[in-house]
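Collaborator request, handled under Task 6.
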Amino acid sequence: MSRRCELTGKGVLSGNRVSHANNKTKRVFRPNLQVISLLSETLGMTVKLKISMNALKTVDKNGGIDTFLAKAKDAVLSQRALRLKRQIAKKQAKAAEAAA
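Structure tokens returned to the collaborator:
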């Protein structure tokens, strides 16, 4: 999954570069992807994901990777992110069961 955000599914877009003389040539819009280590508080470990900086802002706004993945739709997540989401949900369910 190169050049695709693992959390939002944002990928490469194509369009036109338009000159002052209105000449149109093809160009590519690439997302700002970075490999980021995110701390999962539920799992107690860091996870490296290739995400866009827009997704990083959204993760921070939602309060961390755990809550972001809980709200995220499965269709846009990568296989690694889906696996992480299931691990977090399983661990949270086990903790809620132990508390009850």
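The cover message to the collaborator said: "The chain has a mean pLDDT of 95. The beta strands are 13-18, 24-29, 33-40, 45-52. Please let us know whether this matches your experimental observations."
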